[in-house]
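Here is one chain, start to finish.
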Amino acid sequence: MNWSQLSLVVDANQADLVSTMLEVFLAQAVTTENAGEDEFYEIAFPGTPDWKKVAVTGLFEEQVDVEPIIEFIHSQLSQQEVPTSVSKLVDQDWERVWLSSFKPIQVGTKLWVCPSWCEPVDANARNIILDPGLAFGTGTHATTAMCLNWLSDQNLSEKNVLDYGSGSGILAIAAVFSGAAHADAVDIDPLAVTACKENAERNGVEEKVIAYLPDQIGSDSQQPATYDLVIANILADVIIELRDTLLVHLKPGGRLLLTGILNTQADRVIAAFGDDYTFEKEIRDQWSLLASR
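Its structure:
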């Protein structure tokens, strides 16, 4: 079956209304995505994104006449101009299309991320075999790529690592591939915890990479677990909110690796950690990576 795809770009405060109207008109699926200049994030996070413009898209069976739907929705909105587009969507094997969108990528010194359904480009490299499943973290986003590149250049021999907001577990696995003795991966999403465990097994590091929900970490000890390296690839505001949590898990003399931070937010994050911490900054596109010294 082929489909008609109706997309309307509206102010963020009208996105829920448009979504509801599309559902009333029996859209088979309704999705929303950022339509403004502020970039969305790869990283899982609590709360809702601060988008200014939202593209709301409804999927209808091909025989449905969408023109009356467009007229009605326009009539209900206070927004003067509503950019609207209609396109045909040819039915296909969507799982195969999704799989084909991921290719092996080099993300650091002799470090590659290779989807589980592809052959590694360099069999002698450090290949992270990854199936993201429903969790975030594939290595394609600038923040994840910067973290992977940083980790690939480190000698983490005998170090313990905490990846807070771990998603697929890609950074925890990369830390072990860079010599870490152990890496704990923490995420608020049970699906991410499951994906991380599966990816650790896929890479043969299931005894060194352990995935947890936040309330499970260190639950068998009266003292908080502490680490030589604490990684947080989340969002600037969430990192600031989690500052005390991250620091309570950091060993004296340990290092912080922080990203998910827009360049315009970096100074605010640095200030939140106070004068006891100085950071080296790496910039890629509009993103900053902060590594404490």
